[in-house]
């Protein structure tokens, strides 16, 4: 993760007194082959993308990777996608309706984390007008991103 770089550089420079709130962990022991995991404050990773990139067809989404599972939360629709990464690296089988307990648990972890770091969350624009939407021409791309696997493994 990108936020592991600062703690790694500090570790290499023997700087142990890092500012509070640093989320990453040092990669030094992994890179030296002494360990297989990075020690971080949390046992999960959160990726937060609360906005649009029109030309890429992207949409507001957050995800959390915890243990061998990945949960995506789509803010526009309120839909969730849950994948078991150990057996489904292509993210083809959405387990959200099969494991609502896990969706609730992981969504709770993600929400607590986003609140803790004071993350900005997307909200509905009351002045939205579909006819003036500059992203309208990218709707097909956005739809495919939300409904098809990102990667196809042969």
Cα separation of the termini: 27 Å
What is the count of DSSP helices, taking H or I runs of 4+ residues?
4
Largest sheet: 4 strands, antiparallel
Mean pLDDT: 85
Tell me the Rg in angstroms. Answer: 18 Å
Shape assignment: globular
How many domains? The number is 2
3D structure, described in words:
- By secondary structure, the chain is of the alpha+beta class.
- It folds into two domains: 1-41, no CATH class; 42-123 and 136-154, Arylsulfatase, C-terminal domain, CATH 3.30.1120.10.
- It is 25% helix and 15% strand.
- The chain contains four helices and four strands.
- It has helices at 5-12, 28-31, 100-116, 139-147; strands at residues 44-49, 61-66, 69-74, 80-84.
- Strand 2 (61-66) and strand 3 form a beta hairpin.
- The protein is globular.
Give a summary of the structure in a few sentences.
By secondary structure, the chain is an alpha+beta fold. The protein folds into 2 domains: 1-41, no CATH class; 42-123 and 136-154, Arylsulfatase, C-terminal domain (2-Layer Sandwich). The chain contains 4 helices and 4 strands; from the N terminus they run H-H-E-E-E-E-H-H.
